[in-house]
Specification:
With 136 residues, the protein is an alpha+beta fold. It has one domain: Ubiquitin-like (UB roll) (Roll). The protein is built from 3 helices and 8 strands.
Length: 136
């Protein structure tokens, strides 16, 4: 088990934006929302190349800030997202990709039964500061 991705210990990376700005200064945050359920799937980043690729290909594509390269979500796993629409916020400094998962799976993490789940499957317990799984 990957403790960061699947554990119950809170380890927020408050330096993430500073790292992104230093390594990839020309990106925007992209919230990704499921077209059918409205759930938030993930937050990623896009530069002009990633946005152009998304619009041309119809696949949700981002800029990987950790690998510093184009990242077509699901290209390796097959869990790609069809891009339904792109929305721009009022200040034009973030995007919303409205997507539809092609195979139904959203995240590489699995629940206790080994089934795929949403990336936002944990909630922060305000009383204890621990992460609590929303699904078994």
């Amino acid at each position: 088990m990957n403790e960061l991705e699947e554990g119950e210990r809170l380890a927020l990376d408050f330096s993430k934006l500073a790292k992104v700005a230093a390594a990839c200064p020309d990106v925007l945050p992209v919230a990704v929302q499921h077209a059918d359920t409205g759930e938030v799937i993930l937050v990623a980043y896009a530069n002009e190349t990633a946005l152009k690729h998304s619009l041309e290909s119809g696949n949700a594509t981002f800029w990987s800030t950790s690998r510093n390269e184009l990242w077509e979500k699901g290209a390796t796993s097959g869990e790609t997202f069809a891009l339904i629409e792109v929305r721009v916020n009022c200040e034009q400094n973030s995007l919303l990709y409205v997507v539809r998962p092609r195979r139904g799976n959203i995240c590489h993490t699995k629940n206790g039964a080994g089934e795929p789940r949403n990336c936002y499957y944990r909630r922060l317990d305000a009383g204890t500061g621990r992460l609590m799984n929303l699904d078994p």
